[in-house]
Amino acid sequence: MKDAIKTIMIDLTYPIENEMPKFHAYWHPDVSIKSLGHHQKEGRSTLRLIVGSHTGTHIDAPLHFIEHGKSVDNIPLDRLIGPVTVIHLTHLHKNDPLQIEHIHHVSLKTKKLIFHFGWGKYWKTDSFYMDYPFFSKEVAQYLISKGIDFIGMDTPSPDDSRIIINKETIGSDQDSPIHKLFLSNDIIIAEYLANLDTIPEKKDWQVIAMPLKIKDADGAPARICIY
Asked: Quick check: pTM over 0.85?
């Protein structure tokens, strides 16, 4: 009997844990995980979890930036599961905008894309939220025109990290313009993907991105893998 072909599955998810990195804004709470039940006392283990809707590896639903947009519990499963193309762009430098010329050679044969910028090496460092490559408006419009419905990345955002979020920019056209372009066109965003450096080049992949089904939520932590 021939040996069964073993399916390669790669977990793209960072574990949720105390003191993990988060975006430095008051609307992103610190993660808190505390024991409530103990084997020695209650005969079981239970935990209390405090996490934000954009903690660690997570999904952005359109509602994140689009008023009355689709919430995470209303995302159809076929938008979260299916064939995906992994695009390796580790040659880009800090603060480089992703341009069409960087991906013109890629055959966009799937509606789901994962972008590997090599940013996972900065996880749990002060550099993670600074100076990462970002999506230009031209690339965003190009991907929208190609009917892309899911975009994942190993950076914390598709937007330029140098945008200063203050009273003047919050809610303005300068505030997270790439998020707004993608989400207003019903493109699901997956951020903080892990282990993209372990993905072999040339292979057909399927992605499974399963966020917590939180009613009316703008996003949620997700277990994401490819196989």
From this structure: yes
